[in-house]
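[09:14] KT: can someone run the structure on this one? pasting the chain below
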Amino acid sequence: MEKESEAQIYEVAFCVEPNYAGWRLDRYLAEKIRRLSRTRIQRIIREDLVWEGPRQLKPSTPVWPGLTFRLRRRRDPEPVCERDFGVAYEDEDILVVDKPAGLPVHPTARYFHHTLTAVLRERQPQGEKWDIAHRLDRETSGLLACGKRPEITRRLKDLFSRAGAVRKEYLALVHGWPEEDEFRIDLPLALLDHPLKVKMGVVPDGKEALTLVRVEARFERDVPWRGPKLALVRCIPVTGRQHQIRVHLAAIGHPIVGDKIYGPCDRYFVDFAEGRLDEQARAELVLERHALHAAVLAFPHPRTGETLRVEAPLPADMNALLLPEASTASG
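[09:31] RB: done, structure tokens below
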């Protein structure tokens, strides 16, 4: 038992770079660990900072170039999530998976074994190296293209990095009924100076961002936040900014159902991560995750050059909200 307890503690080393000279220690760490709030960082400094210097480092201590210290961290058990995935397309060169919501793509501070990267590594045949060519947020379900060999993966990554080379279509369930059936959202985006270090927003001098939207269905459900009107929309991101579709839809008054950052209250993001989301919050969110699904990928095959179009059906949780009668009948 003692070994197991000790194994959960690890240390992360930091060495202050010259450009941070004079910054408060808590501000420096907030810049380095963007997912944590300033209050949380101040507590870590007081309780878990290791430094062999002559005096205690405090949150307000100005840092200097070359200052070296360590943070003791406890590695919590990985959250349980779905580790399986569907195969939407496969040939000798590529694999397009249908990722379930909740499965992270790459390792993070909270996830290592429960990631798509780890699952692919477990399943790849000898002599192949399956690698993911692009990204999806953990809560977003749907299509991800993977190369089976390094040279194929390089070509795929090059395709996905080029504007207009890959067509992506997403399906989202949103609050409210958009007035028009088809429209454009052309609003510049940038990372905000916000306690949630990952939060994006519409900023006049931000990066260009364009999303094309088409309403697929309007319907009503008994939901407690923003009234009964909901819609299924198809979104085509022309640009590829972080959280682009989520921020754009929220900015025009139609946030995605279940969005813990851009929906009812951005505090829900931290509450969920720390396991203290209350019943009111769960009711307002409606779903356990944001209702965004990568439904279509279309791109030139990296070896043959022929256009490949792959589709993934709407997942069960989104379909149950859209068509509850069909969901009940099938269950």
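[09:33] KT: thanks! The domain at 2-74 is CATH 3.10.290.10 (Structural Genomics Hypothetical 15.5 Kd Protein In mrcA-pckA Intergenic Region; Chain A).
[09:34] RB: yep, looked fine to me
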